[in-house]
Structures are given as structure tokens and as C-alpha cells.
Design goal:
By secondary structure, the chain is α/β, with parallel strands linked by helices. Helix content is about 40%, strand content about 10%. The structure holds ligand FSX.
Length: about 375
């Protein structure tokens, strides 16, 4: 990831060296514009800005977490434009990915801070233990001290994963380490929360692209998440939504409704109260997402999702009272599918296709 030969090159030069065609690059810009809810007129501007941008310094700190966030980001087994974006940034410090260790690693962090003071982007995953700073230390430095020290010279901070954004699983009751989020501690810097346990890789890169492209922060919702990705609920973008609207629910995991792909609301799905892009971007290069695999959404991008009661108990609100921020239409779903389909590299397997055909037949009845 850390590639010094790319340090002074623009993204355009790096992409050409990697053999990425102009067509593929523009396709990526178009998909990104679509996800960020920008008009197609912005595509040439995004392409131009990205092609000419130089590598910003990024310092990535990992605290109390399971490394799922980094795993999510690096799971791609083929070279993708997203991974090139990461080749393009100067990832000067990352506990898990850096080759350096010991004093050399800490020196890299200090040098990056010194050389780019006021300009570097700080990415944090994991929560910070406050009950006893010794619960989690790196190079003998407590998570708290390292965060406060590194945040001082950052232009902005991206809290990646629910742990960094809201405390996440370490913060769950009884919260034995006194875990808190980045936003609980830092009050004088812009913070972008990119929750999810783990977050969707393209949402992480999409948020970074906003910063790289326009040098600005994306528009955020009331709990600090980019609206472009977290602006609508899973429920409002779910392909099973038409079953909900018709009152067709799976009652158990092996009944006829489950086999026919009906709505998982009664099995505890938290889609109506969860805001994230899983239903449109999906996972594993657009292959699927939990609800498509037959499991209710756990709500992992929401604060305190672990303490919200059983994952398998239906939400308490009556189904008819769930706010509908989007009227689901086949046309809307198709448009989202076309835009995001550009990122999908795997074809869905035949079983899913057959399953979906059966479901559509039910809706026609
Ligand atoms: Fe937390 Fe991330 Fe969940 Fe794990 O770094 S959001 S436990 S996927 O790894 O922080």
C-alpha cells in the first residue's frame, strides 16, 4: 500500500501506468457520481479533479476493534479502481498494513505529521478505552494519547467503522473498558463517521474520494454520516420491500415465505431503522448482502446496535406505521441497479435468480 514511487504522481499518471483504461476510469467516476447523488454533469469534473490531484498524506490509527474494517477495505482479490485510489493516497502509517515496525513505524507517523501538519487526513478505526489507558497501547502509547496527539495536525478525521464512530461492540453493555468514540473526544476538528461493522468498502473509498476530489467534506446527517450513502434506510432500498408493502412476511426461517424470499421484518430485520447503502452497493463486489442471503439486517451502522434487544425480535412499531421516505417503484430500483451494477464484477448465481423469479411471481398474484 505504501508506495513511495507514486508519491509525486497525479492519480491520472498512476492510473495510466497501471494500465487502467480511460473508459474504466470514467465508468468508475459515473458510478461514484451516482452514489453521491451528483448529476451526470459532474462526471467530467470528478474525472478532471481526480486525474490532477496529488497524493494527500493519510495516517490510519487502529484502536479497540477486530480489524474487520481494514479487512473489508482490502478484501478485493483483484486490482480495482478502489485499491488504486489507495495506492494513490500516501498511506504513511497503518498499524496492520505497514511494513515498518517498532521505532521505525512510530517515526513514520511523526514524520508524516510534521511534514504535512494541518493537511493530512486522519482515519481512525476502533474505539478508545477510557477506564484504563493500559487496556490498549501501541508502542507504549495509550490509544487516548495517540489519538489526541495525531488529531492535532489533521485537516479532518474519518471515523471508519461503528467502533470509531459510536463505540461499537466494545462500547456494548457492560462496556468493560469504558470505550468511547472518536467524536466523544475530539470536538475541534471536522469528523466524518463511516459506520458499519464493518463498513462497506466502496462507502469508505467513496467518502475519501469526496475529500480527494473536491477537498471538502461530504454533507452529513445528524449523526455525522455522509448523506449520500446513509441518507436512506435499508428498508427503503430493499428489493424485498414490495413484499412488505403487500403484507407478505416470512414467519420462520424455513417456512414457505422464507423460501419465497418474502420480507424478513417479523424475523427481526432492523432495515426500517438502519441507514446504510448495503441494499444498493451490496458486498463482495456487488454480489449480495445479508437480507439477500436470507438473514435479517442487524442494524450495525446505528449507534448501540448491539444493545438494542434481540436481533431476531421484530421491531416494536406496527408495520403500517413505519415511515416511508421513499415510495418504492420498480423503475427506481432498476435505475439504482443499473448505476451500481457497473461496479459488480461477479454474476449472481443461478439459485438467486431463480429465487427472485419465484418472488416476483408472488407479487403478481
Ligand atoms: Fe469495529 Fe473495525 Fe466492527 Fe471490527 O476496525 S466496526 S468490531 S468490523 O473492525 O472497528
Amino acid at each position: 500500500m505504501i508506495n513511495d514511487s507514486n508519491r509525486d504522481k497525479t492519480l491520472g499518471e498512476t492510473l495510466r501506468e497501471q494500465g487502467i483504461s480511460r473508459r474504466s476510469f470514467l465508468k468508475f467516476c459515473a458510478t461514484t457520481a451516482s452514489m453521491m447523488a451528483l448529476s451526470p454533469a459532474m462526471i467530467p469534473k470528478i474525472a478532471h479533479a481526480l486525474e490532477n490531484a496529488r497524493r494527500p498524506s493519510v495516517i490510519w490509527l487502529s484502536f479497540q476493534e477486530c480489524t474487520g474494517c481494514t479487512e473489508s477495505l482490502t478484501r478485493a482479490h483483484t486490482t480495482t479502481i478502489e485499491s488504486l485510489i489507495f495506492d494513490f493516497i500516501s498511506l504513511d502509517y497503518h498499524h496492520t498494513l505497514q511494513a515498518a515496525s517498532g521505532h521505525a513505524a512510530e517515526q513514520a507517523r511523526e514524520t508524516a505529521m510534521e511534514e504535512n501538519y494541518g493537511k493530512y487526513l486522519l482515519i481512525v478505526d476502533g474505539s478508545i478505552p477510557m477506564d484504563n489507558p493500559g487496556y490498549s497501547t501501541i508502542a507504549g502509547i495509550s490509544n487516548y494519547d495517540m489519538l489526541m496527539d495525531t488529531a492535532k495536525g489533521a485537516a479532518a478525521i474519518v471515523a471508519v467503522g461503528t467502533c470509531a464512530a459510536y463505540g461499537g461492540i466494545p462500547h456494548a453493555k457492560p462496556n468493560p473498558t469504558g470505550a468511547v468514540s472518536v467524536g466523544d473526544l475530539i470536538k475541534d476538528k471536522p469528523i466524518i463517521n463511516v459506520p458499519g461493522c464493518p463498513p462497506i468498502p466502496v462507502v469508505i473509498t467513496g467518502t475519501l474520494m469526496q475529500f480527494l476530489t473536491f477537498g471538502s467534506l461530504p454533507e452529513l446527517d445528524h449523526i455525522g454520516r455522509p448523506k449520500a450513502f446513509y441518507g436512506k434506510s435499508i428498508h427503503d432500498r430493499c428489493y424485498r420491500r414490495p413484499f412488505y408493502d403487500k403484507g407478505l412476511f416470512a414467519e420462520t426461517f424455513d417456512d414457505e415465505g422464507a423460501k419465497k424470499g418474502w420480507c424478513l421484518y417479523k424475523l427481526g430485520c432492523k432495515g426500517p431503522t438502519t441507514y446504510n447503502a448495503c441494499a444498493t452497493t451490496k458486498w463482495n463486489d456487488g454480489t449480495s448482502f445479508p437480507i439477500e442471503a436470507g438473514h435479517p439486517c442487524l442494524g450495525c451502522s446505528e449507534p448501540d446496535f448491539w444493545d438494542g434487544g434481540s436481533f431476531y425480535k421484530a421491531l416494536s412499531m406496527p408495520t403500517e406505521n413505519i415511515t416511508r421516505t421513499v415510495i418504492y417503484t420498480a423503475a427506481g430500483a432498476a435505475a439504482a441497479g443499473v448505476a451500481l451494477g457497473a461496479m459488480n464484477r461477479h454474476k449472481k448465481n443461478q439459485a438467486v435468480a431463480t429465487h427472485n423469479r419465484t418472488s416476483i411471481d408472488d407479487l403478481k398474484k
